[in-house]
């Protein structure tokens, strides 16, 4: 199977919506956690088990032809390793990563991610903007839900 999107992630609140958001694409999730793999397979998602630097699961799902990868493990070190591996296997791949520590945004970019998001920073900014009346959080959430 050749996937449009490949995700390297671990089970968390951040990654839980990924399969639903990617439902209309051909996608796979690579995870080192057999329990997460089992849960996702029950939802008819292809899930090879492999660590962040394991090339074989990525090759098996056709990362060489994938359009994009989402990297969101539980540590930035694992994210960096997953990014380096994915970039090596597909230099044209669009890689989007989530960092757990805002100080590592530039490091993950240097590892090869095209876009690095810090959920904590984004969440904090939205909280402050909402409290100060600068952002309509409910409207933003509605717009994001409509796009799904």
What do you see in this structure?
The chain contains 7 helices and 5 strands; from the N terminus they run βαβααβαβαβαα. By secondary structure, the protein is of the alpha/beta class. The protein has 2 domains: 5-117, NAD(P)-binding Rossmann-like Domain (Rossmann fold, 3-Layer(aba) Sandwich), CATH 3.40.50; 119-148, no CATH class. A 5-stranded parallel β-sheet has the order 2-1-3-4-5.
- Give the end-to-end Cα distance, rounded to a whole number of Å: 24 Å
Please provide the count of β strands: 5
| Helix-strand makeup class | alpha/beta
Q: How is the biggest beta sheet arranged?
A: 5 strands, parallel
**Share of helix among residues?**
40-55%
Determine and state the CATH class of the largest domain: Alpha Beta
User: What is the gyration radius calculated from CA atoms?
Assistant: 16 Å
Number of domains: 2
Please give the structural blueprint.
Layout: E1 5-9, H1 18-21, E2 27-30, H2 34-41, H3 55-60, E3 68-72, H4 76-89, E4 94-98, H5 105-111, E5 115-117, H6 119-131, H7 137-147
Parallel strand pairs: 1-2, 1-3, 3-4, 4-5
What distinguishing features does this structure have?
148 residues, alpha/beta, Rossmann fold, 2 domains, five-stranded parallel beta sheet, 7 helices, 15% strand
């Amino acid at each position: 199977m050749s996937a449009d999107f490949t995700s390297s992630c671990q089970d968390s609140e951040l990654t839980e919506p990924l399969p639903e958001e990617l439902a209309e694409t051909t996608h796979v999730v690579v995870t080192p956690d057999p329990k997460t793999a089992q849960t996702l397979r029950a939802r008819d998602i292809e899930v090879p088990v492999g660590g962040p630097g394991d090339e074989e699961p990525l090759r098996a799902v056709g990362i060489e032809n994938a359009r994009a990868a989402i990297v969101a493990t539980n540590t930035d070190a694992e994210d960096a390793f997953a990014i380096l591996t994915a970039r090596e296997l597909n230099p044209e791949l669009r890689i989007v990563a989530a960092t757990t520590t805002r100080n590592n945004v530039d490091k993950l970019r240097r590892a090869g991610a095209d876009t690095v998001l810090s959920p904590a920073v984004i969440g904090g900014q939205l909280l402050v903007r909402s409290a100060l009346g600068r952002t309509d959080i409910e409207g933003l959430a509605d717009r994001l839900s409509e796009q799904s």
